[in-house]
Amino acid sequence: MSSFEQLRQTLHDIGVLKSARAILAWDQETYMPRGGAELRANQLALLSGIIHRRVADPALGEMLSATAAKANGDPDVAAIVRESTRDHERATKVPAELVEERARVTTLARGHWAEARTENDFAKFLPWLEQVVGVSRRIAEARGYDESPYDALLDDYEAGATASQLNEIFPPLREALTDLLGRILDSGVDVDDSCLRRTYAPDLQAQFSRMVAQKIGFDFQRGRLDLTVHPFCSGTGPGDVRITTRYDKNAFDDGLFSVLHETGHGMYEQGLDPRHFGTPLGESCSLGIHESQSRMWENLVARSRGFWKHFYPKAQNLFPHGLGDTSLDEFHRAINRVSPSLIRVDADEVTYNLHVFLRFELEQAMLTGELDCKDLPEAWAQKFETAFRIRPPSDTKGCLQDIHWSAGLYGYFPTYTLGNVYAAQLFDKAEEDLGELEPQFQRGDFRPLKDWLQKNIHREGRRYAPRDLIKKVTGKEPSQEPLIRRLTEKYGAVYGL
Ligand code: ZN
Fold it and tell me: Out of 29, 262, 283, 460, which one is annotated catalytic?
C-alpha cells in the first residue's frame, strides 16, 4: 500500500469514528431519555478521547511526512496533507486527558445550564460555567496563539481567523446596522405580523416545511428531519445528514425558517464530495462558510418576494384560516418585520448581528479573565441595554439563553455574522454568474443556485482557508459592504426609508 493510500485509510477510519460520535450527539438532542445523560457523557468522552488519540498518533504524523515527500504536485494530495497536518499538529498540542475532560465537563454543564435557564437561576450554572471557561482557557494555552487566547479557539471554527481580523469587519457593520435600526424605529412604521401568530397546527407546519425543504433541494433519501429543542444540523457522512427543528403552534415563521436554515446547512453536507469522506477535501470549510449556506437559504432566498410568489399560494391552501385573508405583500412584510428582541434566535436580519457582537465581546473578556464569570449577568444586561435600549427582565432571557457557553463553544458566535457577511458576498457573485435569482425562485427553480453553491463551495471541501475561498470565488476579500447594501435596500423598501 502506498503511503497515500495508507493515509486515506487512516483518515477514513477517523471519519467513521467521528460519524458515530455525531449520531450519539444527534440522539442526545432528539430522542435520548433524560436518564441516559450520564452514560452518554461517558460514551462521548471516551469516543472523543479515541478520536483525539488517532488524530494525534505519531504514526499519522509519519504517514503525512511520507506522503508529502511523494506528493508530486498533485493538488488533491497536497491539500489533504496540508489540512491533515494542521489537524494533527493542533491535536498533538492538547493532551488527551484535557480533551476528555472538556467532553465530560461540557456534557454535564449542558444539563445544569438547561436547569438554570428553566429556573432563571444563574447561580446554579455559575460553577459549571467557571469549569468550562477554565478548561477552554487551558486548551487555548496548550494550542498557543500570537495575540489572544481567543484566537486559538476561534481557529477551531474559522481556520486562520483572528479577533483583530474580525475587528476590521464587525465595527463598520455594527455602525451601519445601528444606523439602519435607528431609522427603522424612527420611521413610525410598525409592520403588522399578527398573521404569523394565529394558530398553525404543528403537523401541517411539518408537512409544509418538509415540502419546501425538498423543493429547494434537500435530499430525504440521504437525510432526515426530526424534532428538537434547539435546531441544528448534524452531517454524519455521505448518505446521512440529520436536520432538526421545532414547531410552535402560534408562530408560522419559527419552525419554517429554522427548517430553511438547517436545510441550507444540510445541503452543504449533502454536497460534499463522498469520494473524499474522512479527508479534509470531504469536510466543510469552516463554520462561517457553513453559516453562509444556511443564512443564504433562510434569508436571501426564503425572505424574498420571488420565493413567496412561488410558495404563498400553497401556504394559503394549506392554512386557509391563518393566511387566507392576508395578501402576499402583507405576508412578505410580516416575515421581514424588524423588532429589537431579547432572544438572539428570534432576531430579525437587521438586529441579529448586534446580538452576536455582544457575545463576541463578552466571551473574549471571560477567556482573558477581564470579566469574572460571576459578573456575567450584569455585564450582559448593561451591554444589551446599550445596544437595544431594553434591559433583559431575567437571565433566562439574558445570558442563559444560548447553549454555546455551556457546550464549550467559545469563538463560535462570530461565525454567525461571518456567515451573513459571506452569504451576501456569494449571492452577489451567484447573480453575476446566473442572472437575477428572484425570477428563478418565482418559477420554483432553485437548481441553478444549488448547483452553483455545490460546485463553488461544497465540492471544494477544505481545499482553501475560508478567507481564501471567498476571495477565490468572488475575486474579493471578505467585506461587510454587500450585506450592508442588501439590508439597506431591502429594509428601505419595507419601511419606506
Ligand atoms: Zn446555522
Answer: 262
12-51 pLDDT, tens digit per residue, is: 999 999 999 999 999 999 999 999 999 998 999 899 889 9
Helix and strand element counts for the chain (H, E):
21, 3
Cα(147) to ligand 1 centroid in Å equals 28
Does residue 361 have an active-site annotation? no
Kind of pairing between the strands at 223-227 and 233-237: unpaired
| CATH fold of the domain at 166-495 | Neurolysin; domain 3 (1.10.1370)
| Integer Cα distance of 369 and 144 in angstroms | 17
Cβ neighbours of 74 (radius 10 Å): 13
pTM as predicted: 0.95
Q: Residues, the chain, total?
A: 497
What dihedral do alpha carbons 192, 251, 117, 110 form, nearest 10°? -130
Alpha helices in 144-201 (DSSP H): 149-157, 163-186
Q: How far is the CA of 336 from the centre of ligand 1 (A)?
A: 19
353 vs 61: CA distance, rounded Å = 40
Cell of 250: 402560534
How far does residue 324's CA lie from ligand 1's centre (Å)?
Answer: 31
Each residue's pLDDT tens digit, 213-264: 999 999 999 999 999 988 999 988 989 999 999 999 999 999 999 999 999 9
**Please, are residues 23 and 236 in contact by the beta-carbon 8 Å criterion?**
yes
DSSP helix, strand, coil percent of the chain (3-state; round to 5): 70, 5, 25
Distance (Å, whole) CA 210 – CA 187: 37
